[in-house]
Amino acid sequence: MSSSVPDNRQPTTDNFSPSWWLPGPHSQTVWGRLARPRRAVALRREVLRTPDDDDLVVDHLDQGVTNRSARFVLLHGLEGSSYSVYIQGMLSVIARYGFAATAMNFRSCARDPNRMSQMLMNRRPWLYHSGETGDLDFLIRTLTERDPHTPLVAAGVSLGGNALLKWLGEHPQQRSVIAAATMSVPYDLDAGARQLERGAGRLYVAHFFQTMRAKTLSVVERFPETRPKVDVPGAMRARTFYEFDNASTAPIHGFRDAEDYYTRSSSLPFLRFISIPTLCINAEDDPFLPADVLIRARAAASPSVEFRVTPRGGHTGFIAGATPWRAEYWAEELMVRWVAQQAGR
Prior knowledge:
two-stranded antiparallel sheet
């Protein structure tokens, strides 16, 4: 395995052409979750004790490391984990290039590696949300203290990308993370939630609610002090993200309501403060996001942020290749290659 930084080859949006057998945004979005492996690489699990005395579960890729110029930090999307197919895909690319990596599981999202359907619940009345950056900040400080001579690079997908961009904007003077990349970030949470109220978006929402409702019930049952805050019946009958976030996400995490949560947690207002090289990959046909948000994000971002916006690709899809057996994951390859190039400069 080579320890050199991979050649960037000047990737552009012209490099991506969706597979003929996955032509539309929904097929691009769904196919990987149905067909890709969730155990592509071997990981070492560690449970960190957070400053508020809870568990933060992280999974390390540290076998066969030959390139010590950077360590990757990876953040998954809504109701995902380090075993989400796109995280496993990026870890496979990272392993190919010989880098170490740490994938963070947002609280309540860590899965038992032996029982993938089993999520591990936390010991505090706190789940996670799109603007939660405290645990990421804690993880970055921990990794930096352990190995101050190895810089960090970060990559986030969807919700995880939103949290990463927000953290970068909150900490423009930080020196631990030297480059970052994101895929399919919503940027404006309110606009994204409204988009998913239409058409096929309701099917995606219903899928997420299968676990989100169960987590709400678990928090209320295990921590009775949360019961007066949470509108449990409202969360159970919610059909939109706005209704669910208003009933559950917002009150659990100290927001006034869904509108307050979206306003304070969207990464859009933080883009102008980002000071390190950052790549943002999006598709115009992303069913989770109105295309006009991409225009607003590009206009708001600092010169350090580079956007790659493709006409097609869906949400966390970007699948190319001639056949299902030779599928190529363009965005995952690009994210790893791009930040590795930045680290090697």
